[in-house]
Write a structure and sequence with these properties.
It contains five helices and two strands; from the N terminus they run ααααββα. With about 90 residues, the chain is mainly alpha-helical. A two-stranded antiparallel ribbon has the order 1-2. A hairpin with a 2-residue loop joins β1 and β2. The termini are far apart.
């Protein structure tokens, strides 16, 4: 994985604040967002290459899925999974 980042390294890396801003926007979206829709939904402008770097990171970490209909937030925190498992049926 380090090889991937070394090969596509940008001159300007995204800050944590920018990554969190993109995460929050995707979490609060009501459905899949296409790239132009994501850009317009962000509270601040983000450079295109920086946004692509953030999306690559989020996809590699399993937080988003990028499909033909757009970008969708899929990550569920562990506490919510445990709560769902308590109410589920054991097989």
């Amino acid at each position: 994985m380090a090889y991937l980042y070394a090969k596509t390294r940008l001159a300007h890396s995204p800050t944590l604040r920018t990554v969190l801003m993109v995460e929050d926007t995707l979490k609060n979206a009501e459905g899949p967002l296409r790239l132009p829709g994501l850009k317009s939904a962000l509270p601040k402008k983000v450079m295109h290459n920086t946004l692509l770097e953030i999306l690559d990171y989020l996809q590699l970490s399993g937080k988003i899925v990028i499909g033909t209909k757009g970008i969708l937030w899929v990550y569920t925190p562990r506490a919510e999974l445990e709560k769902l498992a308590e109410g589920g049926i054991e097989l």
